[in-house]
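Q: I'm writing up a methods section and want to include an example of the input and output format. Could you take the sequence below and give the corresponding predicted structure tokens, formatted cleanly so I can copy it straight into the document?
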Amino acid sequence: MKIGNIDLGDRPVLLAPMEDVTDAAFRLQCREMGADMTYTEFVNADALVRDIAATTRKLEIEPGERPTAIQIYGRETAPMVEAALRAEAAGPEVIDINFGCPVKKVAGKGAGAGMLRDVPKMLEITRAVVDAVRLPVTVKTRLGWDADSRIIVDLAERLQDCGIKALTVHGRTRAQLYTGRADWDMIARVKANPRLSIPVIGNGDITTGEEACQAFERSGVDAVMVGRASIGAPWVFADIARRLGRTGAPVLDTDDKMATLRRLVRESVERNGERRGILHVRRHLAATPLFKGLFDFRSTRIEMLRADTLVELEAVLDRIESDFLHGNDKR
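A: Here is the clean output for your methods example:
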């Protein structure tokens, strides 16, 4: 599959953009595990234009994680164009536009999935960004605003006409948020449209290599995107790569996975400072499947998520490793 001139190979698997998750350290780990392309946290166009430090930091890209897309979002054309130009200057391979975020603070203000209620504005922004930058521009969106407005098949054509080079479809409406099951039959309809020539990337509910294979086979998509299943588990990409028959995908045991989490903690603190780094990495520690099902783990989990210093957190992780992961009560 190609996005513009960027060749991602056969049946690529991409890391979805996720706020407070896909920082540079995590993206690099996912690439090492087998992700074929990564996306930044989504970047607020208005904040980027105002040079808000926390937003500009999201543009930082590690050489080892490439190819990488910077994803931007906003509700007005001029700031989105300016943000796209600034993102392009940061040197990614792709500029991606977020028309899919369903959370109220974004969609409720008309950005993200909120654009599904104003398609002319969505198309205006898309066309303007495509015209402004030299890099390939892609779009990520949803099936529609709600069950009564599942417009994605027609919308995909119209976005293609604006000049985008690929389209990612999350198989839910905005009204669904992340509930229910992603509708891969609807994604398949987008891909099967003979008037659509750009690559289609399917997104939603892929948590295993088997599910990734089924998504490719059932829907015919050119690529799949993995989001929530990777939080606290970048090794999901290695699992998927092996199921897709790729050679060289790493095989991680419990010790390897724990080492991966510890590295994520360390690098988060190095990049963000102790307090901000620990706050950032808590989401991975809370979500990781490595700690799921551990017997009598509740009090230790609370202690882990309340640790305020790196010394405290590492001491808790030491105990988890010795008493739970290597103890007799692992499951």
